[in-house]
Amino acid sequence: MSKKYHFIAIGGAVMHNLALSMVAKGYEVSGSDDEIYEPSRTRLEKAGILPKEKGWFVDKITGDLDGIILGMHARIDNPELQKAKELNIPIFSFPEFIFEQSKDKKRVVISGSHGKTTITSMILHVLQYHGWDFDYLVGAQIEGFDLMVKLSDAPIIIIEGDEYLTSPLDRRPKFFHYHHDILLMSGIAWDHFNVFPTFENYKEQFEILANMTPIGGTFIYCQEDDHVNALGIKCDPAKINLIPYKAHPYKIREGKTLLVTEGNEVEINIFGEHNLQNLQGALHICESLGLTKQQFYEAIPEFKGAAKRQEILAKSETAILFRDFAHAPSKLKATVNAVKKQFPERKLIAVQELHTYSSLNKEFVDNYAHTFDLADIAVIYLNPKAVSLKKLELMDEERLQHAFKRKDLILFTEIEKLKNFLESQEYLSTNLLLMSSGNYDDMDLSNLKSKINQIQS
Length: 457
Description:
- By secondary structure, the chain is an alpha/beta fold.
- The chain has helices at 13-24, 40-46, 79-86, 94-101, 116-129, 199-211, 226-234, 273-289, 293-299, 329-342, 384-389, 397-404, 415-424, 446-453, and strands spanning 4-8, 28-32, 67-70, 91-93, 106-111, 135-137, 149-150, 156-160, 165-167, 170-173, 182-185, 218-222, 241-245, 250-253, 256-260, 265-268, 311-315, 319-324, 347-353, 377-381, 410-412, 430-435.
- The strands form 5 sheets. The chain has a 7-stranded mixed sheet with strand order 7-6-8-5-11-12-13, with helices on both faces. It has a 6-stranded mixed sheet with strand order 17-18-22-19-20-21. It has a 4-stranded parallel sheet with strand order 2-1-3-4, with helices on both faces.
- The protein is globular, with a radius of gyration of 23 Å.
- 45% of the residues are buried.
């Protein structure tokens, strides 16, 4: 008899990927949600598990279910959840279920405020390149992998460990539930202001996680981040295997990044100091799993980068249009600096859409001070509708100039005006960087792309 599971809030990015991976494993899967967007909708439909109608239906909760998987999007008073409790059906949050399925595997957790998806993607790329058998959980769709989650009988699992809340029933960070054997920590920079009201409170979650490393386990940590380094120094090297790391040695030649290795120079597709830190961390994980440095260097030149991370949307000899997921202050600064240092002779127009609760909050926004310093033109876009939906107060240009510490910062609150402004710029020897965890209200980029693609040097 195959096991039966029901998803409450099946439409989420990671939730629907888990549902699809369970169908692939032979489980019986059902689900509900009050809103399902693309691409989740089509993918669930193709697998035959798209709910027939939107909403919550208590009759879907029956005593023969082996478990409920509860998404973050469900509310605590969800009727299906109440019924499942009445029937005493086991209720798993997403991370609890992942652990349940991987108790007998070697569990590798990648944590930190930034770089998690990139580091996880690099490791998956290298393992796949060498034909290893592994499971994974990653926070974005990545090239060469159909799903964001894979659960099978593989002996290891690589998990992107998120510090955000577990479920409506469990207000602890997700990464506590994975019980890692090997932990990597990339950096700590305050994020999720609505959940962790102070930086101390946010930092404490990472300290608890580091302390969860079992005796004989491994903690790989970025020495170049002061907060992470402080946690590493506190650990007992007699009990756990401690591996501090810094950015991999590299050089930039004509806009290309080359790894400096013992044998020779290895050209790669990604760039920026933070990505060279990410790469060094990924190398240590691969070595901890039994791969050699040579195997890593053989595979990494073919790594294209994670989706929406320094993604190139248009390119000519002297201009590039980049899209990047950066939204937290540390990510924004790292991305702006990386693009400017990679192409120092080019002008840089950097645009940031303020989209998250933290970034739109006037109590938090001063954390963005100096993140735009290396940009030649600094632009902010925010949608007044997003601000009112989050019940926040709309900030004006002067407030944002003060927060970012840039008197020449330009604010747009209408997407058409931003689009016209960007299309009116000259892109000869100029890079354009669009950063956001949102989508710029689906701004049409076709004119911009063709303008940049057609530039003659």
